[in-house]
Amino acid sequence: MSFNRPLPSYKQFDYTVHRADYADTFYNRLKKEIADAEAALKEGQSLSLEYSSPSGDRVTVRNIGFRNPNLIMLYGSYQRGNDCTVLAHMESLQLIHHNGPEVMSMATVPEETKLYLNCMEEVRDRVNLVRDVMEHRITTRRDVFDIELVFVQLRKILELIAFASLTANKDKYAAVHAKFAAHYKAKLMLQELEKINPEFYPQPFATPELQPDGVKLCGEATGKSLTKEDFEFLYDKTGDLLHARNPFAPATPTVNIKLPVAEWISRIQGLLALHRARLVDGKQWIVQIPEQGEIHLWLAEPVIAK
Length: 306
What we know:
- The chain is of the alpha+beta class.
- It has helices at residues 23-39, 114-134, 143-164, 170-180, 186-196, 228-239, 261-272; strands spanning 2-3, 46-52, 58-67, 71-78, 83-89, 95-100, 103-104, 203-204, 209-210, 216-217, 274-278, 284-288, 296-299.
- It has two domains: 2-101, no CATH class; 111-299.
- It is built from seven helices and 13 strands.
- Strands 1, 2, 3, 4, 5 and 6 form a six-stranded mixed beta sheet that branches. A five-stranded antiparallel beta sheet has the order 7-13-12-11-8. The chain has a two-stranded antiparallel ribbon with strand order 9-10.
């Protein structure tokens, strides 16, 4: 964490007598608190600083300045990678600091692996679309078309989950995706994926708990989440509605998906809300997907018990 004094254009606000209610005093106090937090870090830990805007966007803060009488200046970037400068009133400023593996912003993620977060963002958008259709906020005005729209979204969500772990390697992704068109059954598709990345399937985690040694421990998720068996079942069932019906068929086809759509969506969210992603290149990420706002990603490293 680095700091800067006010920009040259603001030198007229540099007072020789510092008032307790002015931004420079707040700035110096904030700088000391951050320095103390850095000094308390254990070996292998790092400190990252975040600002949450009123709209819910998170900014990874790299530098801090001030402008008297009451403005704090935050220089950083949104998690999607765009640089930004935030002017915040010191009385409303709330910063979050993390002790541990540093939150990775999109600006620091290699270009090819940004695709993983893009996949997860698309999954969330499609989940929200399914919810909107099921709760009648969006409609095609034909029930059968609404049902088909939901099934298409579910199918695409599953495909995004399956292929996201391969996005770190374009060549392997292309090879498997070329074979994908020939696989109409999920089991065959998953077998192909496992040949490239045996641990491609996300591992859901519960909310991490801070341990006495400063390590955040992610335990196994206890709620219901989408299993591989669920994946295979739902993938195959949603495929039944992707093709036009034979007009000479004696009855309107029905597809039994065993659970309500809302339950399937809940299980998909249970799988992805906080999960470990093991990419084809061996990297492991902890990924958190809130219902809205920026998706968060941390590098995951195993801790060997002594």
